[in-house]
Design brief:
Shape of chain B: globular
CATH class of the largest domain in chain A: Alpha Beta
Largest interface: A-B, 38 and 30 residues
Number of domains of chain B: 1
Order of helices and strands of chain A: HEEEHEEHEHHHEHEHEEHEHEEHEH
Number of strands of chain A: 14
Number of strands of chain B: 0
CATH topology of the largest domain in chain A: Rossmann fold
CATH architecture of the largest domain in chain A: 3-Layer(aba) Sandwich
Helix content of chain A: 25-40%
Number of helices of chain B: 12
Oligomer: heterodimer
CATH superfamily of the largest domain in chain A: P-loop containing nucleotide triphosphate hydrolases
Strand content of chain B: under 5%
Radius of gyration of chain B: 20 Å
Largest sheet of chain B: none
Structural class of chain B: mainly alpha
Structural class of chain A: alpha/beta
Number of helices of chain A: 12
Largest sheet of chain A: 6 strands, mixed
Order of helices and strands of chain B: HHHHHHHHHHHH
Strand order of the largest sheet of chain A: 6-7-8-3-9-10
Chain lengths: 323, 264
Amino acid sequence: MQSSGTQSVTREAPVHLEGLGKDYGHFTALKSLELTVSKGTSFGFLGPNGAGKSTTIKLMTNLIRPSRGRAALFGIDVRQEPTRALARIGAVIETPEFYGYLSPLETLAYVGRLRGMPKDEIERRSEAVLKEVKLGDWADHRIQEFSKGMKQRLAIAQALLNEPELLILDEPTSGLDPRGMAEVRDVIKALKGEGRTIFMSSHLLGEVQEVCDDVALLNHGELLIHGSVRELSRGADTSTFQTTFLHSPTPQELEALASVPGVVEVKAEGDSTVDLRISGGEDGQARVLEAMVTRGLKVITYRPLGSSLEQLYLDRIQESDRI
Amino acid sequence: MTASPFAQVVTVTSYEIRKYVRGRRLLGILILVGLIIGLFLGLPPALGSSYPSTPNAFVSTFATFTGLLVVLSGVLFAADALVSEHEKRTGYFLFPNPVRREVLVLGKIAASLIVSTGVISLYYGSAAIAALVVTKSLTWDVGLSYLYSLAYMIAVVGIAYLVSAVFKSTVAATVLTFFLFTLIFGIVGAILPAAKIDPWFIPTSASGIISDVLGGTAVRPGPGGEVPRGFVPDPATSLLVFAAYAVVGAVLAILLFRRKELAS
């Protein structure tokens, strides 16, 4: 049970979702999501395509109506008072299109005027955010000439214009080349350093791990796990190690490998490469390596495939798909 | 920090007008207006006939095309204004801002009305100046005809916004708005008298006051004898009909646009 003080903090948190759900006819896109994101948190919203991530973000930004529950930003109900709720946020949802007849500067001026920003502040911030997303040289060009990646950068720029306390980003690196992705991540990390709250959806685990403190995993419209990246990584029971041997292991050797304590699964991936799924954390990994060497197997490489969080992600998604 | 709803309406209006000014649609309709004016002024001397001798008769030849011009303005500057935010995905950038949907609709309607008024005013202004030059006089009827055409334009824009709020495709909204006023209302207005119902509530029938106030256009009898003129309600009824279509169209457009979800 939460004390009244805690309840108040929770309700006035940058993001507070209470039993939020959305149905499209007989299809349930989001079941009943309970989620609170505290101030200053960089929050990763993970899940495969169709998990309900974008639906949640659209509900949070009043693009769609909830079938049940409520979404509140800074304690303000998004449906009841949308202008107040959206005043303190900046959002990038999917890859938005812009008016092709406007330039980035004009687009930012439009957003700034709608938000009631003074003219000199619009000019100052426009210059700063366009520089930040590397569109400074394109400030006066018509957007109709822009590539998808440039539009995505502009979307980020307009979301940053009013120096929002909460930044909602739906797949922010979608459509960007690797360099652009890295630059956007740097922008997000810089914002995180400034203490802003970030709510970011992604299906890129590495991206979320790099940028976020807390993470929630969604599948089939249901919250599967929720916690800090560190705790979840630590709590992940198994991880997969790709092991390459000097010679192809025989079936008997593979069988022997499977019987090593801590080895959950042995999967031959090639002539001399085997993926070993290992439980028991770092101790377990060391024990397995030791056991292989003891059994006379000549190990050339022994490296983790993805992170423990990735393994946890895949496990939970598979588990959820089976149900 | 959020602008007042009025300031937001002004902002939306100014950016929508910029869209029309920079787009090809305004240029296209201005070329059409120039072409119509050029034909009306250039053809009679080229064919050796004389211009009408009174200002009302002179302007009434122009007024025959006012209805089409009004409908074209509604189609080009209103029919896709709302639906395009969904179809072209610009809503994803616009809607998460602290601005109510009704503010967006009102701003867009204001822009459509301003641009359409500009086009109609240019057309009527040219006709009036030409009438003044040719007949050396003008009448208040010309001004009334202009005001009636503006009232009809407001009704067309109202309905165009309603269509734009209902449909999911810009092409469908544009095509339906055009055929609604050029074909469907016309057919209904022509069939109703056969059932002994005066089509006073059909906007295209009510738009007859635009020409009627100038004395109507001269219709030559065909081989079968006199051609019956279509039913035209009195000006007060027509103006009420226009107002009803404009208000109902705009209000329903706002309500539907508020409810419309941006889900791809």
